[in-house]
């Protein structure tokens, strides 16, 4: 089943797969929430399938998926019990080494094997360097699919050894239809706010709704519009984000703040553009550090509010 916006990536992928030499490394690039991992799994199954060989419907022995593991033994037990669990901040070098050991053996069912890394932009530096060796000298019949929300963060040497498959964002009409189908209970104002915040990413729009980010969004826009000289709005923003938000909610708030400033930049006058650009750059830096730094959530929320307030039109 092809998801919304996947027609062009599928056409490019199948044209390549039908050629005489399929490239061994692929970067699936695009905003978070566009269904790139869904595409990767379906594409990997097509790659490893061979005529006359029955394929398992569930986990496939020739498709290796590297992603965030549980944070520790306690969180691993939660996962095994079907409970919500915390993830490690990065994909570690040990996971790459384990994958490379598997590549020393033959595929289980056919002649091909696929390795999916989701997201590849969360690889530790040492893990990325170790992966580079596999990309430089790929095992025969092995194909790499690197899901990347921020492909610019990948090592240039990794990017140079992969073909990029770009996933487009959706227009507002498609986003509205998606939310009407997936979240029919949502009122029109929240739906419009989710569409504006997600900027063409259906997954991010649904995440906006499910995490109830509308109050956070309203406060951020108010701070950008009017500033926050007495720090009251920043305090409300910290409360709306939550006293003890999990890492995913904090990351969602950072992503939302960048989206709010991105939209503000589209209508800002020349006098505000430098301040908005500077604040957006700082938020990009914070968003990149948040997965690995142990930020205090309350202080981080106030920092986000302060950056947003710095872009308001001076009174």
Automatic annotation (TrEMBL):
InterPro entries: DNA_Rep/Repair_Clamp_Loader, P-loop_NTPase. GO terms for biological process: DNA-templated DNA replication. Gene3D superfamilies: P-loop containing nucleotide triphosphate hydrolases. Pfam families: DNA_pol3_delta2 (PF13177). GO terms for cellular component: DNA polymerase III complex. This is DNA polymerase III subunit delta. It comes from Qipengyuania oceanensis. The lineage of its organism: Bacteria, Pseudomonadati, Pseudomonadota, Alphaproteobacteria, Sphingomonadales.
């Amino acid at each position: 089943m092809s998801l919304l916006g996947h027609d062009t990536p599928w056409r490019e992928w199948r044209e390549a797969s039908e050629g005489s030499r399929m490239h061994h490394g692929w970067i699936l690039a695009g905003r978070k929430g566009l269904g790139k991992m869904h595409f990767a799994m379906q594409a990997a199954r097509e790659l490893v399938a061979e005529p006359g060989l029955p394929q398992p419907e569930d986990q496939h022995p020739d498709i290796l998926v590297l992603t965030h593991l549980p944070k520790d033994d306690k969180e691993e037990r939660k996962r095994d019990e079907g409970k919500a669990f915390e993830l490690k901040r990065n994909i570690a070098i040990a996971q790459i080494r384990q994958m490379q050991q598997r590549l020393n053996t033959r595929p289980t069912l056919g002649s091909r094997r696929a390795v999916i890394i989701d997201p590849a932009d969360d690889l530790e530096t040492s893990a990325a360097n170790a992966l580079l060796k596999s990309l430089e000298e790929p095992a025969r019949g092995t194909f790499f699919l690197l899901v990347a929300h921020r492909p610019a963060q990948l090592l240039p040497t990794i990017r140079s050894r992969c073909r990029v498959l770009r996933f487009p964002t959706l227009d507002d009409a498609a986003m509205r239809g998606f939310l009407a189908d997936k979240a029919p209970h949502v009122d029109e104002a929240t739906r419009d706010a989710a569409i504006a915040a997600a900027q063409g990413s259906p997954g991010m729009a649904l995440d906006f709704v499910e995490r109830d980010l509308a109050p956070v969004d309203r406060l951020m826009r108010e701070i950008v519009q009017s500033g926050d000289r007495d720090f009251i709005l920043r305090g409300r923003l910290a409360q709306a984000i939550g006293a003890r938000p999990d890492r995913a909610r904090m990351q969602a708030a950072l992503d939302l703040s960048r989206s709010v400033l991105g939209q503000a930049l589209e209508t800002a006058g020349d006098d505000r553009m430098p301040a908005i650009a500077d604040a957006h750059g700082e938020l990009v830096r914070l968003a990149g550090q948040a997965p690995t730094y142990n930020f205090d959530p309350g202080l981080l929320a106030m920092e986000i509010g302060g950056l947003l307030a710095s872009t308001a039109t001076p009174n």
